[in-house]
UniProtKB/TrEMBL annotation:
PANTHER family: 2-HYDROXYACID DEHYDROGENASE HOMOLOG 1-RELATED. Keywords: NAD, Oxidoreductase. It comes from Streptomyces glaucus. This is 2-hydroxyacid dehydrogenase. Residues 110-296 form the D-isomer specific 2-hydroxyacid dehydrogenase NAD-binding domain.
Length: 331
């Protein structure tokens, strides 16, 4: 049985091929699953998809009509999947419920420090042999306040690093994490966290309840010299409202590894094309903003775990087993 894997990055391909060795053939495609590419899957019972795959109703219908019976998503989030339609069509859907939290937490810190210490601007200058320090002054993190929105495994890992810097910790979540409390984190309402934090980082899933969790009102609560980092899901931040605040000269820095309209842009080379997304085009022009292309998870350890879990999900499907990774069980 050949498994068809969509949206496979060059670094990812050998890991996927090795992981599936002895468990069936796998065909890796660099194209992403969309309505235009879904028909490629015809005749494949199992397909594997990447984080930005379109798994809406129409795509699922095309997959089901072509004989697909199982979708193994190589990501944790599933806001891109129409689970109700998948269940109606009899499609089994599985995800990777967890992988290295350190990959994302460490990258979130890389973004925070890069915008705080003006690393990108400094690197660009020195490439031109401009070694002035004008405009490059940052701030110590020690003694400042880190606000963590979402204190699960990734939020906890971020908080541990913040604790190592000697920062005061504020947290917000539906339930307190005892490990974070042991670090000295104090749980407060979201509004208080935004108002008191020097650094705000997002580590919550994207759901209808968390869409634009950081909206125009939330942004106005933040300190003018605060740092905002989002390495979770783009839809957590109202980007139009963020651009408005940046135009007003607010925030020391903003580090974004995700963007709410990233599908069709991120993971692709658009350098020779006209930019149609005016919001993103404006966002990347701000000198205090750093945007990366959804790479926080992209370490050898994390990708290895993602691929390994995907293989186990496929084997469970074949054996009729169900695990915590199954979103829609086999009918």
């Amino acid at each position: 049985m050949e498994i068809l894997a969509f949206g496979v990055q060059a670094d990812e391909k050998p890991l996927i091929e090795e992981a599936f060795r002895g468990h069936g053939e796998v065909r890796c495609l660099d194209v992403f699953l969309t309505e235009d590419t879904a028909r490629i899957a015809a005749g494949h019972e199992i397909v594997s998809t990447s984080v930005n795959a379109d798994l809406g109703a129409r795509v699922l219908e095309i997959l089901a009509a072509g004989g697909t019976r199982m979708v193994a998503q190589r990501s944790t989030g599933f806001n891109n999947v129409d689970l109700a339609v998948a269940e109606r069509l009899g499609l089994t859907v599985a995800r990777v419920s967890s992988y290295s939290p350190y990959a994302v937490a460490e990258f979130a810190w890389a973004l925070a420090l890069a915008v705080d210490r003006r690393i990108v601007r400094a690197s660009t200058r020195t490439r031109d042999f401009d070694f002035r320090l004008d405009g490059l002054m940052g701030r110590d993190m020690h003694g400042r306040t880190a606000g963590v929105l979402g204190t699960g495994r990734i939020g906890e890992a971020f908080a541990r690093i913040a604790h190592g810097f000697g920062m005061r910790l504020l947290g917000w979540d539906i339930a307190e994490n005892p490990a974070c409390v042991e670090l000295g984190m104090r749980y407060v309402p979201k509004e208080q966290l935004l108002a008191e934090s020097d650094l705000v980082t997002l580590h919550v899933p994207l759901m209808p309840e968390t869409l634009h969790l950081v909206d125009a009102d939330a942004l106005k609560l933040m300190r003018d010299d605060a740092i905002l980092v989002n390495s979770s899901r783009g839809g957590l931040v109202d980007t139009v409202a963020l651009v408005h605040e940046l135009r007003a000269g607010r925030f020391t820095g903003v580090g974004l590894d995700v963007y709410e309209a990233e599908a069709g842009l991120f993971f692709l080379d658009r350098s020779l094309e006209a930019v149609e997304d005016d919001t993103l085009a404006r966002l990347v022009t701000f000198p205090n903003v750093l945007v990366t292309s959804h790479q926080a998870y992209y370490t050898q350890e994390a990708v290895g775990q993602i691929v390994g879990t995907t293989v186990r999900n496929v084997l469970d499907y074949r054996a009729g087993r169900r695990s915590e990774n199954v979103l829609v069980p086999r009918s």
